[in-house]
Predict the 3D structure of the following.
Amino acid sequence: MIVSSVDLKKILRPLSPVRTETYQILDSGLILAQDSDAWVIVESPLSGLGDFAVNGKKFGQIVNKLSKDIEITRDGDNLTLKSAKAKIDLKVLSIKTPKIPDVPQKPFAVVDLATYKKLLAIAAGSASPNKSLSVGGVVQWQSLPLGIEDTLPPGYRLVGSDGQVGTIVTNPNSPVSEFKLLLNLEAAAVVQIMDGETLLAFDSEKSIILRSGKVTVFASKRDETDPKRRYPNFDNLLANPPKLVFQFQSQDWAQALRTVEPLMDESVDKGGVTLHLAEGVVVFKTVGVGDRAEDEAPYEQITPDPIFDKQVTVSDLRINAKYTREFLAKAGPESTMSLTDKKTPVRLESGEIITLMMPMIGTKEMK
């Protein structure tokens, strides 16, 4: 058979995030890659060659080096790939034909793929890849409204966390049925490579199943029977009304942070930056010893309304510079910072993005 190298490269891309040495190629044309977290199946034109496996890394490298059309033939234990100037033989491995899991007939969610990929990338950026952590290796995906947030329109929310920071993104425009689940990062990486207009999501006993175009992902479910492995519930934090809200231009605060960040010493201050807010000006300061730096940026107090209440001063609010920088890099032109008390997270918000992070120290003015 003859296949386009461009088409074959595109077909193989969704398999790359799965950590496995072998790709299983079935006589029907399906190609499979499977590890402990995800099972990816793609449709391909490689039919009629029998059921076999190849070294996935080598197969991908070979295809990437070949150009234009590729002639693929199989002779016993050899798979031959020929292009205009090259001929390569790859050893074929015998396999037992796998039983592909059934996909439920009705999806629990049908969402716009481009929007979902954008939100997933933002949430996953704050998710820890360390699966040994209680929140590690997953992003949380849940429908809206849920619990005390019943004023929200229908839609869904994605949350990524490493236990210290949580990034929450919402899409209120896609009505879906009620659900709450965890999606492992391997499957999330495959979704980013999918190509289609919509994403269909199914739920089975052992897997969360995601399908778009010619790609299907069976994402292994995480065992949540251990209370220590359950994902945190952000509903109460999000619904808790803040005492203080400050609005600012994201670029102004990002520039001030860039000024002081090079002099931070994480071995001394754990990557913290100190903020002092007074009279519409926030001052960013390093908090280590030795070299020091500071810069300032404007803000506007929203709550309490300064027309009826005095301007509030917040002193010595210490927050993680890395998490703040990452939020500002993703934020829109305007953002807000909300504070409730020294025992609850600082809330940074811009459009659909919310970042929650615990202050590294409390504030002097907050009770």
Remarks:
- The CA atoms of residues 245 and 303 lie 5 Å apart.
